[in-house]
């Protein structure tokens, strides 16, 4: 693991310390998890943009998935 230095607003430090104590963890562990969550969130956002862009370039054609309609089972019958 590597040690880094960060500059944070005082109110953010207070809030992080409060939550870290409540969760029974350290400020560093809380920050590591928050950064992992933020990176994961950003990756998902990027993939969603690529997905939307792909469907704009090549939209679903009418009837493209109709072969699978008989395979659907929604449990309502």
The first-to-last residue Cα distance is 55 Å
What integer value in Å does the Rg equal? 23 Å
Largest sheet: none
* Helix share bin: 55-70%
Count of strand segments: 0
Would you tell me the overall average pLDDT? 92
Beta content: under 5%
Q: What is the ordering of alpha helices and beta strands? A: HH
User: Which stretches are poorly predicted, pLDDT < 50 over at least 5 residues?
Assistant: none
Structural class: mainly alpha
The 3D shape can be described as elongated
Count of separate DSSP helical elements: 2
What would your notes on this structure say?
The chain has 77 residues and is mainly α. It has a domain at 18-57. The chain contains 2 helices and no strands. The protein has helices spanning 10-23, 27-57. The longest helix is centred in the middle third of the chain and has 31 residues, at 27-57. The radius of gyration is 23 Å and the shape is elongated.
Brief overview, please?
With 77 residues, this protein is mainly alpha-helical. The protein has 2 helices and no strands. Helix 1 packs across helix 2 (27-57).
Question: What is the fold's blueprint, element by element?
Answer:
Blueprint: H1 10-23, H2 27-57
Notable traits:
77 residues; 0% strand
């Amino acid at each position: 693991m590597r040690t880094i230095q960060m500059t944070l607003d005082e109110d953010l430090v207070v809030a992080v310390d409060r939550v870290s104590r409540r969760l029974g963890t350290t400020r560093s562990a809380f920050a590591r998890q928050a950064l992992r969550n933020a990176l994961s969130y950003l990756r998902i956002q990027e993939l969603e943009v690529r997905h939307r862009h792909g469907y704009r370039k090549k939209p679903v054609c009418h009837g493209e998935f109709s072969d699978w309609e008989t395979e659907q089972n929604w449990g309502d019958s």
